[in-house]
Prior knowledge:
It is a single chain. By secondary structure, the protein is mostly helical. It has two domains: 10-97, Receptor-associated Protein (Up-down Bundle), CATH 1.20.81.30; 103-169 and 185-314, no CATH class. Helix content is 75%, strand content 0%. The protein has helices at residues 10-25, 30-35, 44-55, 60-67, 72-84, 87-125, 128-132, 138-168, 176-183, 187-208, 213-221, 227-233, 236-241, 246-251, 258-271, 274-318, 328-331. Residues 320-333 have low confidence and may be disordered. Its main location: membrane.
Amino acid sequence: MPRTPPSLDLASRARLFEHLGVMERAGVPVEQALASLQLGARYDQALRRLRQAVAGGRDLASSGQLSGVFTPLETALLRAGQEAGNLALVHEQLAQRYAAQARQASELNARLLMPVGVLLLALLVEPLPALVGGALGLGGYLAAVLLPLFCLLILYVAARSLWRRWQQRRGVGPGWIDDLLLSLPLLGSLQRRADLRNFCDSLGLLLEAGMPVLDALPRACSTLSNPRLRRDFANLAPRVAAGQSLARAFDALPLQGKSMLVAALNTGEATGRPGEALLRFARIQAQQLAASQQSLAIWLPRLFYLAVAGWMAHSLITGAGFFPTLPEGLAGR
């Protein structure tokens, strides 16, 4: 069974789309642009599959989907860019988005080094009193240190794998986990903003290229990652087909903070440029989303550090490390 190539990391995705954007602006064919792209030995197999698919006559979006290099969201956005005749703009937007996410991830990892170090120190220190008092042998001490680390590693890998699988879903009806993610105080808001930005980006591109709105709406819906939002936004096309304006159709959606979008669309439809209004709104959403992600990158390590420090304090106060217990023979005298 062939080994599945690893998914590109954020920095590699930023380099990929930056390179494709520059080559597209220069008028270089996709096949030649990919031939000059290098992302390191780790991703050679993935790039080889992408090059083979393009050489076989498929378009870039289909080739990326077939080879597994592009995510479903990237594939949908690239298809929108191809149909809109503005593929370079999509490349540039994706490159900027992934470059920003890579910087934020790097900053988050750097800020997490201290609390992770404190956690490791806590795991080493917490069973020490039992080791010194003879209640634990060396094997028991190592087990007490390594077993929690092993469990935390398994939880991290499992959570990361489940999150990636959930993001890869398409054509699946909404379930309870989708509603749960949207209801979370911070993550739910980030999910809504990211999906709304993607939807307005792709719909704006298609409308600016002259595609009829009823043809553009289903394609824009395919960029939504959350099935619940995808089903809600699918109601836009029937309303527009019934004679409603795009602004009025959006106003009927159960969408938080939609007043700015409806106002922008009213202005855009009055001037005959709804696509331009959607792209302008998408840029505002992207800026707000970046600010929220930056705040999360600042506060998440602090909360993690406080949790670890609180656990250490609780272990010291309630355990033998803070109030050592006398041996039974001495305690009875």
